Amino acid sequence: MGLTRLERLEISGFKSFAKKVVFDFSSPIVAIVGPNGSGKSNVVEAVKWVLGEQSLKELRSKNSSDLIFSGSASERAFSSAKVSLIFENLSPESGLDFEKIAFSRQIWKDGLSEYFINDSSVRLKDIIEFLAKIGLSGKKYLIINQGETDRILTLSAIERREAIEDALGLKIYHLKLKEASQKIEKTEENISRTQILRQEIKPHLNFLEKQVKKFEKAAKLREEIKNLYGVYLAKEDGCLKTKLKEISRKKEPIERELNELKIKSESLSGEFSNKILDKENEKTKLLENRLDDLRQQRLTVERSLGKLEGFIELEKNKEARSEEELVAKEEVGIFLGELETFISSILEESAIDRVYELANETMSVIHSFSERMRSANSSIAGAKIDELIAKKEKLGEVSAKIVSEENKIKAELENAKSEERRESGELRNLEKEIFEIKNAEANLKDEMNLIKLEEEKLKFEEEDYIREKESAKSFLSGEIIKSDNFIDENERRQLRKDLERLKIKIEDGAGYDESVLKEYEDVSSRDKFLEKELADLEQARGALNKVMDELKEKLNLDFKSGLSKINNELENLFSLMFEGGKARLYLTDEGGIDILISLPRKKIKSLEMLSGGERSLVSIALIFALIETNPPPFLILDETDAALDEANSLRYAKILDSLSKRTQLVTITHNRQTMNQAGSLYGVTMDKSGYSRILSLKFESSSEFIKEYAQ
C-alpha cells in the first residue's frame, strides 16, 4: 500500500492559522471539532493544498494571497504560509532511505509556490510522482465532505461507473488504454505516412530501375568504346607529335632569314635616317624664314609709301586752294597717329640693323612733326608737303635696301636647294633598297603566318585531344598507351566517327551515370527501409491492439471482481445502517452503474423516493463500501455525519471503528458518537485574537469534553 501511517500535520500562516499548530495523528481515528467559523475547514484545505491542489476555487480563495494569514488586531500579517504532512516511511516503494518523510508546500505574497521533500526543494511533478508511489495520487475519495456523500447518488449511471472505477484504482487502466489508443492512432498515422512515402517514391524507383537496365545494356558499348579510345588516343598522340615536328622544321629557316633581313634593314634604316638629318639642316629653313620676313617688310613699306603719296597729293591740292583752306589740326594729328602706328609695326617685323636705324629716324621725324603740330594752332601747307616728301624718300631707301637683301637671300636659297637635290638621289636609292628588304620580310612573314595558322590548328587539335582524354577517363581504367605512329587524316576521321557513333549510342541508352546508380541504390534502400518500417508498424499496431484487448479484459475482470466486493461490503453496511434491507450495484444496458435498494418495511421504486436521512445513509454506506474495498492510506471525513440522527450516528460510529482497522481516519465532526470513537480530539477555536487555535485531548480525558461539547 505504500506509506500506511500519517504521523502529523503542521500548519503555519495558512489562512486563519497565524501561530504554528501541529496535529498529531497517532490514533487510528482523530476527530477535529469546533464551532462554525473557527477554522476547521481550513485544516482540510491545508491537506488538499500540501498534496498539490491547484484550484483556488477548491480552496475557497480568489487569489493565492488569500491563502496567507492576513493579520488581526493582535497579530501582524504573514508574508508566507507553509503546510507540512509527515509520514512514517514504512514501505520500500517510496525510494527514500528515511524513517520519516515530510511533504511541504510554501507560498509567498507574490504568488511564488515552493515544494519540499524533507526540506529539499522539488518540483510539483516530483511531488505528484512520489505521491503516486505511496498511493496518494488520484484518490478521489481521500477527502470526503458532506456534499460528496450525496453527490454519488445524483451522478448519472456512466458517471457513477467512472467514480467506482476510480475508487477501485482502475483509472490506471483507462489511462493505459488512452495511451495505447493514442499510440495506435500515432502508429496508424505513421503507417499512412509510410505508405504515402512508398507511393511517392515508387514511380521514381521504377524510372531508376529502367535507367539501370539501360546502363546494363550499355555495358558492351562501354567496353567497345574503351578499346576504341585506347587505339585512337595512342595514335592521335603520335600524329600530333609528328605534326609538331613538321611545323618546327618549316619555321627554323624562315625565322633565321627573317632575323638576317631584320639586321640589314636596321642598318640601312640607320644610314637613311642620318642622311635625312643631314639633308634637313637649319640653313634652308633659316633662309626661307628670312625671305618670308623680308617680303612682309617690303609689303609693309610699300603700303606706307602709298599712303604718303596720297597725303602729298592731298596737300598739293590744298595748297592750290586759298591759304585759308589749311588742313585742320585734328586731321593732321589723326594722320600722324596712324603713321606712327604703321611705322612701329615695321620696327617690330624687321630684323635688319640698318632698316631698324632708318625706321627709328623716321619715327623721330614724325614725333617732332607731331609735337610741332600740337604746339601750333596752324602750319604752312608747303612745309608739310616737303616734310612728307622727305619721309617718302627715306621710306623709298628702306624699301630698296629690303629688295636688295631679298635678292641676296634668294640666291643663297637656290644654291642650298641644288645641294639638297643632289643628296635626294642617294636617299632614293637607300629607300628602294630598304623597300625591297621590307617586301622580302613581308613575304617571309606571310609564310610564317601560314605556319602559325597550322600551329593554331594544331593547338586546337591538342585541346580536343586533352578533352577526349578527359572524356575517356570514365571509360579507361589505366594509363593511356602512347605511340609515335603517324596516322593519316582519313584514318583519324574514321576513328573519330566511330567514337562519336558509340557515344551517341551510349547517350541513347542513358549513358553511364554513377550518380543515377547511386540514387537508385539510395532510393531502393529507402524503399526497403520503408517496407520494413511498415511491417514493424503493422506489427506494433497488432501488438498495441492486443495490449488494448488485454487491458479491456483486465479492466472488465477487475471491475467485475471489484463490483462484487463492493456489493458484499455494501450489503453488510446497508444492513447495518438500516437494520435490514438490501442494496446492490448493477450494470445497465448502456454500461453504466445503477443502484437497486430494498428498505425493510418500506417499498421504494427509485432513489428519489428516499428521505433526506435515508439518502445520507445510502450514500455513506456506498462510499464506505468503496473505501472498504480499496482503502487509501488515510481518509479525511469532513462532517459526513452531519445529517444523521442519534440512532444512525451510533451505526455510523460502528462503521468508523471497523474502517479504522484498515486506514487512518481524520474526521471533522459535531457528532458525539463520532467523537466517542476518536482516540484523539482536537478542538479548533477562534477568540478575540482573530486567528485559529487548537486544543488537543487524548482518549483518557476526552469523555468529559465530549459530554460537555455535545450539550
From TrEMBL:
Residues 26-695 form the AAA+ ATPase domain. Keywords: Coiled coil. SUPFAM superfamilies: P-loop containing nucleoside triphosphate hydrolases. SMART domains: AAA. It holds the Pfam family SMC_N. It comes from the Bacteria. Residues 170-197, 244-304, 402-464, 520-557 form a coiled coil. Signal peptide: none annotated. The keyword Transmembrane helix does not apply. PANTHER family: STRUCTURAL MAINTENANCE OF CHROMOSOMES PROTEIN 3 (PTHR43977). This is AAA+ ATPase domain-containing protein. It comes from Candidatus Niyogibacteria bacterium RIFCSPLOWO2_12_FULL_41_13.
